[in-house]
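We give this protein:

***
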Amino acid sequence: MQPFIYLASQSPRRQELLQQIGVHFELLLPGADEDAEALESTMSNEPALDYVKRVTLAKLEAAHQRLNQRQLPWAPILCADTTVAISLNGQESILGKPEGPEDAQRILRLLSGQTHQVHTAIAMQINDSLSHPMPLLAVSSSEVRFKTLDEDLIATYIASGEPMGKAGAYGIQGVAACFIENIQGSFSGIMGLPVFETAQLLQKADVQFALHTSR
């Protein structure tokens, strides 16, 4: 049984959710010489589900290379990516992290009074080869309904700083929970790490955690 994993994510929410289920992990973060943001570039007309899977696997490959370059002892590697998307007038748009306050305002106006989708993909490298066997991959998809947001509320929320650095310009674990009328899906998936799917991957990889049972 594997006693720990590497988590290739800076997200405090993902770290908290792993701690919640008793996973021991060490961070495996990009160095100053890596352009981690470039991995999240979108492709024209790429569906959100395809995008989140592609980005997560690209992050996993980069983390695997990082592990080897740093000559660290082997352990399974976990990566994740969360993507927010909205379909309006029959066209799907991916809503990434806001580039600044004006972009956050644009995104929150789009979400106001609408239902959007949140997709979180998780991938786990279970041995020291990316091809034999292939990495484990799972996706959690949820729907979130926002109440109508007036301009003053949007401005107050942006001034809090919470939208910055978050896909879709909000964090469900923060004050933005006040905006949400309804959720269909996984709360932890919307936070950034779906606990159910993560537990399934951990068990397949024979990683020790609180409720691990023998296969």
Remarks:
- The chain has one domain: 5-204.
- Residues 48-69 form the longest helix (22 residues).
- The domain at 5-204 is CATH 3.90.950.10 (Maf protein).
- Strands lie at 5-7, 25-27, 77-88, 91-95, 115-125, 136-146, 180-184.
